[in-house]
Automatic annotation (TrEMBL):
PANTHER family: BLR4509 PROTEIN (PTHR30521:SF5), DEFERROCHELATASE/PEROXIDASE (PTHR30521). The keyword Transmembrane does not apply. This is Dyp-type peroxidase. InterPro entries: Dimeric_a/b-barrel, DyP_N, Dyp_peroxidase. The keyword Iron applies.
Length: 437
């Protein structure tokens, strides 16, 4: 049984729709005040067991980096029990993640990717009014603590279209977690063991991962935060230049993503968009590939959603060992509809990936599924949307009698920063607050 009263609600609960969100990053300069921040944060965080927070579908999550745990005075013997990827940090893993060239950590927004990032607060609400109320509650945790310094902030808000900046419905697919009480978005998927997402429980291969001491590690999760800048005008131009007309442009957009812009999957509506299907959470994610589309003639094997989750398709490896919970929040203003030139505004997604195995979940998917194609027989082809493209490799649409090859892909998404974090359970937050030198 999952101890839902000790797990942060942001680990398991889907975001509200619509939503507003804010990420706050802090540096701990004074250890005692950092511990006081943890004590106060424990009172601000909503547990997964709570049906609703005092502000409705609104909650605050608190995460700590490896450098943050060290700044709080967690003993070295305990730090050494955390995942080695977490101990290294995201910036040190850049080459593996495809964060090279324009996405290299040397180009990231300061202070992201540095040892100054210690604590991350993430507040989420259905609208800006309730978000500000949540931030007011969170402010009580760090107010009048001069030894805890706010060093970065990113505000996010759902676009009026309900999509992300490339124009697709987002946040459609999430795995089902045993014991969470939250239903599967894909009713054909067997729920995954809780230990795939929450530390201290059995995972899909029967293991139990728990940083020590148990009061610190149990009921926690690892979280990957990434700021991803989207080149919307370049994406639009690519579709326009490779299409024969407006209808073909939308078909190419669907083949690249694996879904029509409305969220309707090609697997269930291969010939045309179906907005009613896209708007139906009971249907728009309930499908498989292996029986009806093994070769990818309907949903290309190299498209974004099939790479991110091959479901039952025949690929190298066991898909269930690489599933993650994904959270995406839009930042920045939309590019005006139809515009094909960049206006210079910063826009994109703040992405959070949650799991218990950084190596075989996020890092595996990012390096093997997003930035390689060997697992499905696609050679060196990369994800057409988020891959670290170099302008050499294009995208192939399987079809009979001849497959369709598109022109070389530019990089549409640039990493602007990020970090590996630990989302402690509520008891662990109190334990961190009670540390003594």
């Amino acid at each position: 049984m999952l101890e839902l009263d000790d797990i942060q609600r942001g680990v398991l609960s889907p975001r509200p729709t619509p939503y507003a969100a804010t990420y706050l990053v802090f540096r701990v300069d004074d250890r005692a005040q950092g511990r006081e921040l943890m004590r106060r944060a424990a009172a601000s965080v909503t547990a997964a067991a709570d049906s609703a927070s005092p502000l409705g579908e609104t909650w605050v999550s608190v995460a700590v980096t490896f450098h943050g745990l060290a700044a709080l005075g967690v003993p070295r013997a305990s730090l050494d029990t955390f995942a080695w990827e977490f101990r290294q940090g995201m910036a040190a893993r850049a080459k593996t993640l495809g964060d090279v060239g324009e996405s290299d950590p040397a180009q990231w927004e300061a202070p992201l990717g540095t040892s100054d990032v210690h604590v991350v607060f993430a507040a989420l609400a259905p609208d800006t009014a309730r978000l500000e109320a949540a931030l007011d509650r969170a402010r009580l945790a760090h107010d009048q603590l001069p030894g805890v310094v706010a060093i970065w902030r990113q505000d996010c808000c759902a676009l009026p279209t309900g999509t992300e900046h490339f124009g697709y419905l987002d946040g459609v697919s999430q795995p089902a977690v045993e014991g969470s009480g939250i239903g599967a978005s894909n009713r054909l998927e067997v729920p995954l063991k809780a230990g795939e997402f929450v530390l201290g429980y059995r995972d899909e291969i029967g293991g139990i991962q728990t940083p020590q001491p148990e009061v610190l590690g149990r009921n926690g999760s690892y979280a990957v935060f990434r700021k991803l800048h989207q080149r919307v005008a370049e994406f639009r131009r690519y579709l326009r230049e490779n299409a024969t007309g407006p209808e073909d442009e939308e078909l190419l957009a669907a083949k690249i993503m694996g879904r029509w812009r409305s969220g309707a999957p090609l697997a269930l509506s291969p010939q045309h968009d179906a907005p009613d299907l896209g708007a139906d959470p009971q249907r728009h994610n309930t499908f498989l590939y292996g029986r009806d589309d093994p070769a990818g003639f309907i949903t290309p094997s190299g498209c974004h959603i099939r790479r991110a989750n091959p479901r039952d398709a025949a690929v190298a490896g066991e898909v269930r060992l690489h599933r993650m919970i994904r959270r995406g929040a839009v930042y920045g203003p939309p590019l005006p509809e139809g515009a094909l030139e960049d206006d210079g505004a910063d826009r994109g997604l703040m992405f959070a990936f949650i799991g218990a195995h950084l190596g075989r979940q996020f890092e595996f998917v990012q390096s093997q599924w997003m930035n390689d194609g060997v697992f499905f027989g696609g050679g060196s082809a990369r994800d057409p949307v988020t891959g670290s493209h170099d302008g050499v490799t294009g995208f192939t649409v399987p079809r009979r009698p001849l497959r369709r090859r598109l022109s070389p892909l530019p990089r549409f998404v640039v990493t602007r920063g990020g970090e590996y974090c630990f989302l402690p359970g509520l008891r662990a937050l109190r334990w961190l607050g009670g540390l003594q030198d």
